[in-house]
Design a protein that fits this description.
mainly beta; ten-stranded antiparallel β-sheet; 10 strands; globular
Length: 263
């Protein structure tokens, strides 16, 4: 591990069409690998997006454990996940995952994860993660010790939050997404990976977008609990598909699928 960074910096808030920062040539990059399981795939053997989201969670916890930070920074909430499916990953395969920080601030950061398969698949991701104080549930300052390795892969230290998906929720009837106990996390909220199931199902009704490459962005506004009724509303345009998660009259999350930005 070195203390200098070699990377392409993102702007402070970024935008939905920005290309993702490439993997740095030096600095704190955490890596791991594991096999793709049959529970991770569609009938056509391609890796599901909710499985990708779980991979990001698992790799993040592994990274905390490896850094000895599982006790000092145990709780992180994802506010946005971006997934670029460049070349689909298909089963059977082993995936190699590489994780590093692409931008940060005092209480949150964006973490890049590159997922490659030994079969030639490639998925690039970035998550906007907020450090949460487990005692009061509020965003909490990242310690200097924890921040030090993050800073080795980015010189962007004034990351700000800005919503990327601003499309107005359509006032049309949708379809119900039935929640299961297995969708709920230890904080009694729907786990962020579960949102990708109805989002990707809606995407697959688009006439052209499901074919790679495509970009998927999911932004979380307010948690959903198991006792709520969730309605999925979808609109398709020529090269865009948007999905809203609505409880009552309130939009809790939004997903959007587009063709990916080019570097």
């Amino acid at each position: 591990m070195t203390t200098s960074a070699s990377h392409t910096s993102t702007n402070r808030g970024g935008s939905q069409s920005d290309p993702l920062a490439p993997r740095p040539s030096e600095g704190a990059v955490f890596s791991n690998s594991w096999p793709v399981r049959t529970g991770d795939i569609h009938p056509d053997r391609s890796l599901r997006l909710d499985a990708v989201a779980r991979y990001l969670q698992d790799l993040g916890f592994d990274n905390l454990e490896a850094n000895g930070a599982a006790q000092t920074h145990p709780l992180w909430v994802v506010r946005r996940t971006l997934i670029d499916v460049i070349r689909p990953i298909t089963w059977p395969a082993t995936v190699q995952l590489h994780r590093w920080c692409s931008a940060l601030s005092s209480r949150w950061c964006t973490m890049r994860v590159r997922i490659e398969s030994d079969g030639g698949g490639l998925i690039e991701t970035e998550g906007f993660w907020i450090n949460i104080n487990p005692r009061n549930g509020m965003p909490s300052r990242i310690s200097e010790d924890f921040m030090a390795p993050l800073a080795t892969t980015t010189d962007e230290h004034r990351l700000t939050w800005r919503r990327w998906i601003t499309d107005i929720t359509p006032n049309t009837a949708g379809t119900e997404f039935c929640l299961r106990p297995s969708d709920i996390d230890p904080f009694d909220h729907v786990n962020n990976a579960a949102y990708w199931q109805p989002a990707e199902a809606s995407l697959r009704t688009h006439p052209t977008l499901p074919a790679a490459p495509y970009r998927a962005v999911l932004e979380y506004t307010k948690p959903i609990t198991i006792d709520e009724t969730v309605e999925i509303r979808t609109t398709h345009c020529s090269e865009t598909s948007t999905v809203w998660f609505v409880c009552g009259n309130e939009t809790r999350a939004t997903a959007q699928f587009t063709k990916p930005a080019r570097s």
